[in-house]
Amino acid sequence: MSMSSAAIPSFQIGLNVLSGLLDKAEAYAAAKKIDPAVLLQARLYPDMFPLTRQVQIACDSAKNGGARLAGVEPPTHEDTEQTFEQLKARIARTIAFVKTLPAGAIDAAADREVIFPMGRDNKGRMRGADYLNHFVLPNFYFHISMTYGILRHCGVEIGKRDYLAGIPMTVI
């Protein structure tokens, strides 16, 4: 299995799931007459990031991780989203960028050293395959899961099928 076949489809599927979760959250807020900002600023615990930041970080994990592996410069996002529509636009921009990543360059990064920020003052260093498998993908899925958890905690009617939506499979 190539690195690009592990990365690019995972990013696309996960980002589409994220967008679908936001669609359901937006519909829930409208149906229950809840100010959307309540959901967008909700968090599972006071020291955790709110939903908006979880979505931003999931997008950043895909675009920055993919870009580092491909050896290209990622686009910058200003982290100013305050509505479901703005978050879904960010997701769409991230998907569009991920689709431009050269598969061959990602595949060639398996044994190349990747250096990446770890907070404000530190950097991490890993072999490309390890970076993808043990840092980028787990981080990406973590923030999608936190988004799911926040929405579920707030009463949005979502389930495992919503989280697994978009996975290419045939049910027999």
Question: What is this structure's SSE topology?
Answer:
Blueprint: H1 3-32, H2 36-40, H3 51-70, H4 84-98, H5 103-108, E1 113-118, E2 122-127, H6 128-153, H7 160-163
Antiparallel strand pairs: 1-2
Structure report:
- By secondary structure, this protein is mainly α.
- It has one domain (3-163): Four Helix Bundle (Hemerythrin (Met), subunit A) (Up-down Bundle).
- It is 62% helix and 7% strand.
- It is built from seven helices and two strands, in the order H-H-H-H-H-E-E-H-H.
- A two-stranded antiparallel sheet has the order 1-2.
- The longest helix is centred in the N-terminal third of the chain and has 30 residues, at 3-32.
Summary?
The chain is mainly α. It contains seven helices and two strands, in the order αααααββαα. The model has no long low-confidence stretch (mean pLDDT 96).
